[in-house]
């Protein structure tokens, strides 16, 4: 792989967590090369990749400007990027402040509260070989519960922390796209969760996020 870019990002075109890392890299104008693993060929489980991520999942990054240092787990990657390369705190809160821990709180909530439940909704609605109505109902309810948590905060303030957009907000974008478009039946995002929908749409309009998402759309179209 070329090291002309600062980072190598191991990702997956149809996946989720690699794209939120790309959003952050693009927002900070850091250079990166994406390597899209083929899950049908189990490339994420191959030794060529598990030497970087023993968990055999995406994403993982190699930081070529830091002796090829490797980080895996998406929100750990995001934390690494902002700690190392967002010294002006364009996307982050300064360490040691109370709001820094609020930012961490939202990153942990996204990783533990949003991603797994939304991911299980995708699995049981798309990938599971049989339809399990009780599982679908459970995870669709969890999606609305998580959106309700966001709504309870965003109905009172514009952003999750610090009065401005941070990685805490960005971390939710990718899974919320699926919630808004395909995971819930007869779902009116703007009507049911108006503040969260407004926040989500503002994030989608950011040039860096729009650029990354358009690149994903191009790659998806090539596969069809």
UniProtKB/TrEMBL annotation:
UniProt-listed Pfam families: GST_C, GST_N
Location of the GST N-terminal domain: 5-89
Catalytic activity: RX + glutathione = an S-substituted glutathione + a halide anion + H(+)
Class in the EC hierarchy, top level: transferase
Enzyme Commission designation: 2.5.1.18
Entries under PROSITE patterns matching the protein: GST_CTER, GST_NTER
Keywords, ordered alphabetically: Transferase
GO cellular component terms given for this protein: cytoplasm; nucleus
GO molecular function: glutathione transferase activity
Keyword Lipid biosynthesis: no
Domain called GST C-terminal: residue spans: 96-223
Protein family: Belongs to the GST superfamily.
PANTHER family found in the cross-reference section: GLUTATHIONE S-TRANSFERASE-RELATED (PTHR44051), TRANSCRIPTIONAL REGULATOR URE2 (PTHR44051:SF3)
Task of the protein: Involved in the oxidative stress response and detoxification.
Protein name per the record: glutathione transferase
């Amino acid at each position: 792989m070329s090291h002309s870019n600062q980072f190598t990002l191991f990702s997956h075109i149809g996946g989720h967590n690699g794209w939120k890392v790309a959003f952050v890299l693009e927002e900070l104008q850091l250079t990166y090369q994406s390597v899209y693993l083929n899950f049908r060929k189990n490339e994420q489980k191959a030794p060529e990749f598990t030497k970087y991520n023993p968990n055999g999942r995406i994403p993982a990054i190699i930081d070529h400007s830091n002796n090829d240092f490797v980080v895996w787990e998406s929100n750990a990657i995001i934390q690494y990027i902002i700690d190392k390369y967002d010294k002006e705190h364009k996307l982050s809160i300064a360490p040691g402040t109370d709001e820094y821990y609020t930012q961490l709180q939202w990153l942990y909530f996204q990783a533990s509260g949003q991603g797994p439940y939304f991911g299980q909704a995708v699995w049981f609605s798309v990938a599971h070989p049989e339809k399990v109505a009780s599982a679908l109902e459970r995870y669709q309810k969890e999606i609305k519960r998580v959106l309700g948590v966001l709504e309870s905060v965003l109905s009172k303030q514009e952003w999750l922390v610090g009065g401005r957009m941070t990685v805490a907000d960005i971390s939710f974008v990718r899974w919320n796209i699926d919630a808004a478009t395909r995971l819930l039946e007869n779902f009116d995002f703007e009507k049911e969760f108006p503040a969260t929908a407004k926040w989500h749409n503002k994030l989608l309009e950011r040039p860096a996020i729009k650029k990354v998402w358009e690149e994903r759309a191009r790659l998806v179209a090539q596969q069809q």
